């Protein structure tokens, strides 16, 4: 699997999922959720989570090119790093509790988990290339 084609597909899937989440999120904030959900800087959540997800997937691809057996370990290491970075990111809202704490934490995890599922889907595609690519690789060896 070419690095550039996988990277472009992974980036497009993560950005597409992020855009869909952002649209649904905006619609919920404008029409359904209480007003306090829209008053905080919820757009900062996207600036934190989307690049971090892209970074995790691209680093896993680099590791996959070097050693296919190390991808799982690398992913788990980066998930722990991502979790600790998330705690650091959420710390202003967690430690200095105010009216925005609960809405920001809710919104954060409502974005965190769908992006995590997209990451996992992309990495499964990395580890299980389409059947045609397996046949091409077997013929080349």
Protein described:
- This protein is mostly helical and 141 residues long.
- It has one domain.
- The chain is 84% helix and 0% strand.
- It contains six helices and no strands.
- It has helices spanning 3-31, 36-39, 43-66, 71-95, 101-127, 131-140.
- Helix 1 (3-31) runs antiparallel to helix 5.
- It is globular.
- The two termini are 15 Å apart.
- The mean pLDDT is 86.
| Average pLDDT number | 86
- Low-pLDDT segments, ≥5 res: none
Helix content: over 70%
Number of domain modules: 1
Proportion of beta-strand residues: under 5%
Morphology: globular
Largest sheet: none
What's the gyration radius in Å? 18 Å
How many strands in all?
0
Secondary structure class reads: mainly alpha
Compile the SSE list and pairings:
Blueprint: H1 3-31, H2 36-39, H3 43-66, H4 71-95, H5 101-127, H6 131-140
Compact overview of the structure:
The protein is mainly alpha-helical and 141 residues long.
Keywords:
single chain; 141 residues; mainly alpha; 6 helices
């Amino acid at each position: 699997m070419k690095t550039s084609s996988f990277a472009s597909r992974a980036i497009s899937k993560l950005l597409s999922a992020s855009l869909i989440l952002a649209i649904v999120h905006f619609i919920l904030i404008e029409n359904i959720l209480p007003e306090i959900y829209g008053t905080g800087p919820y757009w900062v959540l996207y600036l934190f989570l989307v690049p971090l997800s892209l970074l995790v997937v691209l680093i896993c691809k680099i590791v996959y090119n070097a050693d296919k057996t190390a991808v799982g370990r690398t992913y788990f290491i980066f998930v722990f790093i991502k979790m600790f970075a998330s705690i650091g990111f959420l710390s202003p809202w967690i430690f200095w509790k105010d009216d925005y704490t609960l809405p920001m934490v809710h919104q954060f995890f409502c974005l965190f988990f769908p992006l995590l599922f997209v990451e996992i889907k992309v990495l499964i595609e990395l580890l299980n290339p389409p059947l045609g690519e397996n046949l091409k690789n077997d013929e080349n060896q």
